[in-house]
From TrEMBL:
SUPFAM superfamilies (UniProt xref): PLP-dependent transferases
N6-(pyridoxal phosphate)lysine found at: K306
Protein name per UniProt: Adenosylmethionine-8-amino-7-oxononanoate aminotransferase
Protein's organism: Pseudoxanthomonas taiwanensis
Role summary: Catalyzes the transfer of the alpha-amino group from S-adenosyl-L-methionine (SAM) to 7-keto-8-aminopelargonic acid (KAPA) to form 7,8-diaminopelargonic acid (DAPA). It is the only aminotransferase known to utilize SAM as an amino donor.
HAMAP family: BioA
Gene of this entry: bioA
Record-linked CDD domains: OAT_like
Main localization (coarse): cytoplasm
Keyword terms: Aminotransferase, Biotin biosynthesis, Cytoplasm, Pyridoxal phosphate, S-adenosyl-L-methionine, Transferase
Pfam families: Aminotran_3
Localization, UniProt: Cytoplasm
Amino acid sequence: MGGRVHEPRMLADPPPAGTAEAWRARDLAVLWHPCTQMREHPDLLPLVPVERGEGAWLVGRDGRRYLDAVSSWWTNLHGHAEPRIAEAVARQARTLEQVILAGFSHAPAVELAERLLAIAPRQPGRPPLAKVFYADNGSAGVEVALKMAFHWFRNRGEEQRTRFVALENGYHGETLGALAVGDIPLYRRVYAPLLAEALFAPSPDAWLAAPGETPVQRAAYAADRLADLFDRHPGEICAVILEPRLQCAGGMRMHDASYVRRVRELCDAHGAFMIADEIATGFGRTGTMFACEQAGVMPDLLCLSKGLTGGFLPLAAVLATQELYDGFLDDSRERAFLHSHSYTGNPLACAAALASLDIFGTDAVLERNRATAARMATLAAQVGAGSRHVADVRQAGMVVAFELTRDGDRSTPFDPALRIGLRAYRAALERGVLLRPLGDVLYWMPPYCVDEAQLQLLAEATATAISESTSCA
Ligand SMILES: *Cc1c(COP(=O)(O)O)cnc(C)c1O
């Protein structure tokens, strides 16, 4: 085996216990980190032991502060260690920490379902979303939605409805079912032989618009191609799954809301279900409580996770229509939806979610976010104007993205071997900001409590990260 071998530190003096250096060594001795080429630790990729969180800050074991500009993988909403959510979880933990959710019930699960259904997107003329099924992470929620859509048609005897349509450049998680409807080659390619075959429709992504084509025209073009897919597979498609308005893992790519409306219309016209994956966009991230609202559209299945608990605990909720639910009511157990996870509807997670929803009310979060988003727009425009490598600055509410290219235009992407994103990551970290670029796309997705001084730090660190990471080009 070629390559470098990590020297065990045993012979040298071990770092003093409790220091950042000691925790790094203990970590690398035993942990296998997610979404990481472990070979890159620690030389190419620093490893930051965190001691605690405080609002938008992460405080390292070395005492350094890092602004969490990615909300810890898009989960955090109101800041780290938010006292009201922490208190709600602690109270629940002293009361009921976990209970089987088959045959048994508990107040937090019921109350959370009621509250989610009350705030879920609606659409005139459609019966509202009516039932909540819990899972314990986003990918599991996606699996639930896919299985429900498929199984519903089986129960009806429409056995030819076996196909899912997903969007190019979409992302729905890492489990095999979720990967099958994802289109990010880095995550998907190696597992392709294991994956169910989905149909992929072109992304409405405004960045992919042809020269002179507007985002609305791009959306119309992509919707027409989706219509073609339906025509080519009559009666075969059970559902379309999409991330409305914002393809997050695909590079924070945004599309016009008219596309989401066309998906709704096409699903209706062809008798297929519409699955909205709002795992990342839900809970105010794109400006409205849910991104579907911007299109005035209600999906048949709505997948929620990430921000659902304010970023405290893993939980997913899949909201379904009454029509879907009724399709499983039968004397036969096989027609029931027998899917389950051990921690389905965990009371601690539900309590955290309820406390997070309370904060939306007491702190007028969506209103405050509007002001914060406006400030982010101003700062982002300045950062964008400061570098010839910024080809696009785009925003959807509390998400801002900078697309970096060699010549600042669409046709000159950087050579991936330059690892622009990794360089930017390290440069920002040096300045106390956790940015985690997606390829050559830098983005801001901070906790909603981010303040003016923190936004300024974010803008300065981003400008520096762009200039330092691109100086090699
Ligand atoms: C993160 C994400 C998922 C997967 O959620 P996990 O909890 O990481 O499994 C699914 N869909 C979207 C849109 C996501 O951003």
